[in-house]
Amino acid sequence: MQDYIIRAMDREGNIRVFVANTTTLVNDARNIHNTTPTASAAIGRTLTAAAILGTMLKNQKETVSIQLKGGGPIGTILAVANSKGEVKGYVGDPTVELPLKDNGKLDVGGAVGQSGKITVIRDFGLKEPYIGQSDIVSGEIAEDLVNYFAYSEQQPSAVALGVLVNRDTSIKAAGGYIIQVLPDATEEALDKLESNIANAEPVSSLIDKGLTPEEILLHVCSGFEMDIKDKSPVELSCDCSTERIQKALIAIGKDELEKLIEEDGEAELVCHFCNKKYHFDKDELNCLLKEARAQ
Q1: Cα(3)–Cα(17) distance, rounded to whole angstroms?
Q2: Which residues constitute the domain of residue 282?
Q3: Residues 127 and 252 in one domain
Q4: Is there a single domain that holds both residue 141 and residue 195?
Q5: Taking the CB of residue 184, how many other CB atoms lie within 10 A of it?
Q6: Residues 6+ apart with CB under 8 A from 61
Q7: What pairing do the DSSP bridges indicate for beta strands 63-69 and 171-181?
Q8: Is 138 helix (H, G, I), strand (E, B) or coil?
Q9: Helical H runs in 56-152?
Q10: What is the count of structural domains for the chain?
């Protein structure tokens, strides 16, 4: 099944819902970063959340980023998405692995930590991006996003994110949903939604059973008359390029470039998001140095 996200609203105007299957996307990220199961779950949940937030953007040039710095051994987690369904991300330490929790589940909260911030950056192509931030409450990512929406954006939301990992460390199932309460929601609708969510199976289990995002929507929003507004594909995609890396080298300044040429005579840079390597020999560095001096 191709990864995709659906956006839906109930006919009474109580809620809007986003449901995603991101199994292939998360497995591609696992392959690129060679993550352990715990790191796969952490980056997978964050990539899924970023993909869903990306579908909320209106223009193609806009991007949204989710960054978690919880003080745990995994370090920083970052995921970036745009409105076209292109997502990229990385974890600080992809080799982190912790003992399973008492319930047999991966200890993502222990890897992320609970003593830091979750930051959401929306870049609308203006001079300054919108930056929202809140405390990490559990490190499990979904709960942290619920807290973020409530306190930074005053948007009551329910968030479910899940990743199931096979014994060979490949991704068995991944996905999630975000349900946002609209201003005119009734108490009856909220009570029904709360009951549905409390009784719902984990979203990764639903995907593992073969349920599509449309079927998950019906499962979670039982009792609501839902209209699917659109359906959009999502994929892991990095926009790095030689030109971007060249600009990064020029940006370090002529003094640093001169030092690099004198000491090493070459440079190799690796993209954090896709691990692609970019090599520059001495002649290429000298050309970049000329550009740096001209600025």
Answers
A1: 17
A2: 242-294
A3: no
A4: yes
A5: 9
A6: 82, 125
A7: unpaired
A8: coil
A9: 108-112, 142-152
A10: 2
Overall pTM surpassing 0.90 (yes/no): yes
Task: Give 59-107 pLDDT, tens digit per residue.
Answer: 878 999 999 999 999 999 999 999 999 999 999 999 999 999 999 899 9
Shortest CA distance to 138 belongs to which of 119, 156, 118?
A: 118
User: Structure tokens of 94?
Assistant: 């992809």
Residue type, 161: L
Residues 181 and 286 in one domain: no
Do 276 and 203 share a structural domain? Answer: no
My answer on whether 96 and 39 are in the same domain is: yes
Amino acid at 293: R
Residue 64 corresponds to which tokens in the numbers above?
């949204």
Residues 225-234: b if buried by 16+ CB within 10 A, e if exposed: ebeeeeeeeb
159 and 249 part of one domain: no
* DSSP per-residue string spanning 58-100: -STT-EEEEEEE-SSTT-EEEEEEETTSEEEEEES-TT---PP
Residue 208, φ and ψ in degrees, nearest 5: -60, -30
Q: What are phi and psi of 221, to 5 degrees?
A: -105, 35
